[in-house]
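Cont'd.
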Amino acid sequence: MAYWLMKTEPDTFSIDTLKEMDVSCWEGVRNYQARNMMRDQMKNGDLVLIYHSSCKKVGVVGIAEVVNEAYPDHFQFDPESHYFDPKSDPDNPRWIMVDVAYREHLPLVPLAKIKARPELENMPLVKKGNRLSIMPVTEHEWDTVLAMAGREPVRSYES
DNA sequence: GCCAACGTTGGC
DNA sequence: GCCAACGTTGGC
């Protein structure tokens, strides 16, 4: 299994929204690098740090789990959607999405504190100019962020 | 609101 | 294939 970090703007879709929905598709990824990782590497059971961006309290706010692997993002074919892509061919969809399930909230781990941690200096999140909306997280980084939130390491939510 | 950094587009 | 112009991201 693998660990990930996924960014979302809480004004549009927050960890609270995900909790209410329990399971949600993760639509609107329109970056090839992020898409390729999601398509080729993201598997059911992978755990995800949910990160709030472009808001007052930027940082990691909770955990989700991948529960449905890559499938076409139908919003690319909806002219009414913000994520509409007129160049995408319905017979060969350009963009995909996964489904994620809410697992838990964490106390905010602010970006500023993540940046201050030497163990986390290699995260794409804190690399200058990196705007990836989905990025891999190593097990050590995962454990470090959880520890910063006061959370014991978690490897899975299976009973 | 500012602006740096990056990705995408399109003319040539 | 180059590269300037433009749009977007996202912290501050």
